[in-house]
Amino acid sequence: MMDSLIPVINKLQDVFGTTGTEIVQLPQIVVVGSQSSGKSSVIETMIGRSILPRGTGIVTRCPLVLQLMYCPLEDENYRSSKNATLDAEEWVEFLHDPNKIYTDMDKVRDEIIRKTNLIAGENKGVSKEPISIKFFSPHLLNLTLVDLPGITKVPIGDQPEDIENQIKELIQDYISNPNSIILAISPANTDIATSESIKFAKDVDPTGARTLAVITKLDLMDAGTDAVDILCGRVIPVKLGIIGVINRSQQDIIDNKSINDAVKDEEAFLKRKYFKLASRNGSVYLGKTLNRLLMCHIKTCLPEIRARINSMTLHYDSLLKSYGDDIFDQSAILLQIITKFSNAYVSTLEGTSHNMLTSELCGGARIFYIFNETFGRTLDSIEPLDGITHMNILTAIRNATGPRSSALFVPEVSFELLVKQQIAQLSEPSLRCIDLVHEEMQRIIKHCDNELQHEMHRFARLHERIVDVVIKLLRSRISSTTSMIENVVAIELAYINTKHPDFVKEEDLIESLMVLLLPHSAENDKKEENEKSVTK
Is the dihedral of CA 135, 138, 140, 141 positive or negative? Predict the structure, then answer.
């Protein structure tokens, strides 16, 4: 029963990995260590196969989520004829390509490198996007490990200058999960007190309650020294224990020394060098310990996880039901939603909407207010004779008569010239009226959201598209409306109908005004002639 907990957590991990969300913090073992600490060797020893990329500098550049799945040869849950795994002893699957089966471990390594370059680029940068890998084998214990980039301080080559901070943030994101177990890797041939992995673990787990320390390279310590004090917990206080292991050397890898042979050599070394501690150290003991710790940790976290998932299930079930029935005719639904939006828009304009505001004017009522109050009052405020003085009138009359006397008749040209200047003042408030009406017609779109709340929530992208189309349509009509207004004003300027009843009615007043103005004009002419004769 306990063994089935880890695969269940793995399934949840796959779901969250596929959706790109981390709503629930799942139990997992996070592997932390500096570069060249033997981190990859520890993981590969537990897997029993060499599948991780190796090399100089940062090799692991994004989180590798390694799900180790115990799969006996007679298993019927994972093995099937569909994926051609009935006869395979062990195989690997990637979450990003679940339909492809890998039985060649070299190709697994190549795929990790290819996907890493795709995610994090080829300039040795890092990324927070994980690569999920499932390893099925009858020789494994159920286990989930997250291999993180090695801690580094100095950028190499074309690495970003802030590579250290990027890696620190990535590690902090994973180990700060309270449901994670921290596997802190430290080499025995360096000062454990200054171990970077232990420092990271202490920052988020000061009591060491969820930290397991692994001391690598026990065989590379200086002559005459040993790691007894470290392995007994006298140097590093962690509650989950301290386990020492021996890694395959680079020469072992070059010589293709198998992991099984390396484990046998490790066992022999521990019995020879640390006889009393040998049973509680080594890669085999580490794998069993991690399996036990992870299952116990899952059992502890399970009530909270179950409650959280049940709450999420109820929420999303309710959300799913709110979306309505399945759609079989998309065209009909599309037409229905567009029609409903159109009707909502028209009803808001006409004032027949069931969701009209009572706190402010909106829709057709506001447009009516803009026409009759804002625009109308602006027109009423324009003074017909504003800016026209007596001298302007006299000058216009004299310019219109040329060398002829203006004593007998008032030329209409002068009148039209003055009137056109005043008519032109109607253009600015008219164009401003266009802007105000356009703004209100855009506001009506938002008001329509109240009529289509259900559809807007269910078909969010369709709603955005409808709004975008309507906004563009309204914007496209501004130019033609502006041209129409300019044409109307231009028409009024093109011909002044002096036979209009309004002019005829005031004709006597205009003539009497001109009679008063013209004598002054004649006197001014005489004065100018006298001044000219004197100067001669």
Answer: positive
- 344 with 452: CB under 8 angstroms? yes
Per residue in 210-246, pLDDT (tens digit) is: 999 999 999 888 888 888 888 988 888 888 999 999 9
Would you call 324 helix, strand, or coil by DSSP?
coil
What the block records as the tokens of 49 is 């196969």
Rounded CA separation 165/171 (Å)? 10
Closest CA to 20 of 104, 88, 119, 105: 119
CA 131 to each of CA 6, 103, 153, 490: distance values in angstroms, whole numbers, following the listed order: 18, 18, 24, 69
In angstroms, what is the C-alpha Rg of the chain? 43
- Check residue 450 and report its DSSP letter: T
Tell me the torsion sign for CA atoms 490, 494, 500, 505.
positive
Distance CA 301, CA 179 (A): 7
Using an 8 Å Cβ cutoff, are 187 and 198 in contact?
no
Structural domain 25-303, CATH architecture: 3-Layer(aba) Sandwich (3.40)
Give start and end residues of each alpha helix (H) in 86-162.
Answer: 105-120
Secondary element (H or E) of residue 180:
strand 180-187
Backbone angles phi, psi at 213, to 5 degrees: -95, 140
The CA-atom distances, in angstroms, between 71 and each of 87, 91, 140, 263 are: 12, 10, 8, 22
Residue 99 sits at φ, ψ, to 5 deg, of: -90, -5
What is the rounded distance in angstroms from the CA atom of residue 228 to the CA atom of residue 277?
Answer: 8
- Phi and psi, residue 338, nearest 5°: -65, -40
Q: How sure is the predictor about 110, in pLDDT bands with cuts at 50, 70 and 90?
A: very high
Instruction: Measure the CA–CA gap between 203 and 208, rounded to whole angstroms.
Output: 10
For the chain, the structural domain boundaries read 25-303, 330-496
Q: Apex CA 373: angle with CA 372 and CA 378, to 5°?
A: 100
CA 91 to chain centre: 36
Taking only the tens place, the pLDDT of each residue in 491-526 is 888 887 777 776 665 555 555 555 555 555 545 555
**The architecture CATH gives domain 330-496:** Up-down Bundle (1.20)
Residue 2, phi then psi, degrees to nearest 5: -65, -35
CB-count exposure of residue 12 (10 Å: 0-12, 13-18, 19+) = middle
* Contacts of 447 by beta carbon, 8 Å cutoff, 6+ apart: 344, 348, 353, 355, 357, 362, 363
Comparing CA positions, the residue from 240, 248, 235, 183 lying closest to residue 41 is 248
CA distance 97 to 102: 11
- Cα–Cα distance for residue pair 142/8, rounded to 1 Å: 11
Q: Give the pTM.
A: 0.62
